[in-house]
What does this fold into?
Amino acid sequence: WRVLDKIVQSGHITKDSIVVDYGSGKGRAAFYFNCALGCSVTGIEYAEPIYQMAEENLDHYGRDKGVRFVCAHAENYEPVGADTFYFFNPFSVEILHKVMARIIESYYENNQPPQAGKNVEVTIDLGIQEVSEEALEDAALFHFGYPPLMRRMYENGGAELRDMFRAAKAR
It folds into this structure.
């Protein structure tokens, strides 16, 4: 929940945002963003059983609050009108590239360029300061996804990535 709290507190997502949650699973992030900010959220989940669980969770949450789920492969979903994209390490880098291309294609196909004064961006950013020492203490496996896409990981000769892996190895 700490990461979701930080995203909500960052101000990048507002009540006016239209969010697509790729790899939404049972809907935790979708419900969280909607509840905390009141924004519209569409969760994309390709696994039918997990999608069904998200739908059941939506029944309990309330279908009239601006959250919906779609059972689809992420690279095939057309995010018409969306301006914010959330990824929680849902798939391979190859699929991620296809999804990013689909997001860009969607804007051109639907003649919906970003609104004036509104940035359409995808940010995947994490640094050593977001990884607590307690989290590393009992970890038997440290998996860190998508470092090639995280600017802070490769700036300054990869110092941030090196420091993160050193901290993990030291535990």
